[in-house]
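User: Please write out a complete single-protein record containing the residue sequence and its fold in token form, without commentary.

AI:
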Amino acid sequence: MVGLRSPRQVRAALAAVAVTIAGCSGGGDGETTPLSDHLIVSLGDSVASGEGNPDRPARVGRPAEWTSRRCHRSGRSGPALAAREVAGDDLGRVVLLGCSGATIQTGLLRPYAGIEPSADDSLERAQVRALADLAGENSIDAVLIDIGANDVGFARIVQFCVLSVGPCWKNRFDPRPGEPGPRVVLEQQVPREIEELGRDYARLAGALNEIVPASRVIVVEYFDPTGTTAGRGCTMFLGGVTPAESLWAREHILFPLNRQIRESADRFGWRVVDGVDERFAEHGICAPERWVVTAGESINDQGIPLFGSLLDRQTRRELLASYKGTLHPNPEGHRQIAELIRPVLEAVVDGPSG
């Protein structure tokens, strides 16, 4: 969408991301629903995009289908499901902009290559910019936001703990891979990341205030991928993270992250969807009734390239993307998140305008 200038061009282009959630065709190749004049817009990262839950899972000889492959965006995320329920028959009210791997700085405020970059390395339009373009010709009824986990490096920390010897929080961690700077003991680095996230939320709030009233913004807490069963019935988490490490991650990353979300919502006048981590408490990756995608499920449903060489950059990208759904909510997890979002979304949509 880079280079669009007129409101008509912007509206036509953004109509392509107005998803017909019921029976979503996926892949970005099917029909789209014309935009309504009143919109519910979802922004954010992999939880918003539906990572791990393609519109149509891969099968032998058939790749996974997504509304946006670059973003691993589907109509099966919790925000998308909740928006469908609130929008009813007027599905043109729903615009999904979430992109897996996004952060506030890269994805929301600035363009982003996506979790599965395209062969031409084109960039996904900054989500807040896309929202501003939509607001130029439409009334924004509500903005749903899931963002923050990538900002504090949750996925990198999990990978670090998988490879660590001994308690990972006691080991030195590289907070900015590829950038100059010293390694820092992980348990000392995490509070710094949470504090910086608070500043990024302030930057996001400043950008949103120019587009939509704060009373229309809903920020969603994060789910708990480990659940309380991680310390009991699971001897090893992901084959390399011990129960003690997963409990540490919950208490020192997830809980402070959600606390920062609540504090920022209170500070900026946003509505908050809370209770998400509690809802997942007995349904983490090690639970008998999982609401979380395993590595095997991710590879199976998102597919791996059957042809191509590992010397080919795009083949490597597709291969790496196949397991990105690991530790994300599965369909039941997203349905549970949608149940928590729906009453808050209804209250905002039905509330006074302005």
